[in-house]
Amino acid sequence: MMRLLSVAVFFVTWWIASLFVGSAKLPPPPDVLQAIIAQARTGALFLNLGATLARVAVSFVLAMALGTAIGYWMGRQRVADRLGDPWLIVLLNLPALVIIVLAYIWAGLTETAAIAAIAINKLPTAVVTLREGTRALDPSLDEMARIFDFPRGKAFRHVVLPQLAPYIAAASRSGLALIWKIVLVAEFLGRPNGVGFEIGVAFQLFDIPLLLAYSLTFAAIIFVIETALVQPFEARLSRWRPRAA
Prior knowledge:
Helix 9 (about 195-205) runs antiparallel to helix 10. The protein has 10 helices and no strands. It has about 240 residues and is mainly α.
C-alpha cells in the first residue's frame, strides 16, 4: 500500500511540475502515456525492451557468476586477495564510459563487446561484496564441518552458502540497479536497438515524450522485478538469521 501511495505521489508531483515548467520541457503523464501507446502499437516498444532486457540478463548472470567465484576465492586466500586488490581498485574507479568505449574500439561495435563491457563494469562490485561476505564467515562452523568430516561440496552447500546468501542477495540487488544503467550507455553508444538506442534517437530529435516513454517503461519493469523477485529472494535467503527485537 505504501509503495502504491509513493508511486501516486510521484505522478502527482510530476504533473504539477509540468504545469509550472511547461509541457515543452516536461510533458505531463498523459503525453508520455500517448507516446508509450504509440510505440507499443508499432511493436517497437516490445522489441527494444526485449533487446535491453536480454543484455541485462546475460551481463548480470555473467558478472554475478564470476564475481561470486572470484570474491569467494579472494576472501579465502590471502595471496589471491593481495594480487587481486589492485585490479579491484582500478576497475572500481575506472568510469563505465571508458570501459565501453575501449571495448567497442578493441572488439568493434558488436554484441559481444557490449556484453563484455557491461559485465566488467559490474564485476568489481560483486567481487568486493562477496569477498567481505567470505571474510565474515563463522570459523566455528567451518571447524564443525571438519570435525563431522563433511565432504567439501556438502560443507559448501550447507555451511558456507547459507552464510553467503545475504551477500549474494545484496550484490544481486545493487547489481541489477547498476547494470541496466550501464546497458543503456552501451546501447546509446553502439547498438542498433534497445532502450538506450531509442533514448539516443529521442535526444537527437528533442522528443522528450519519447525519451520519457522508454525511460519510465523500462524503469517500471525493473521496479516490478525488484519487488516481485529480488526482494522476496533476499528475504527467503535471510530467513534463517535471527531478527533484531
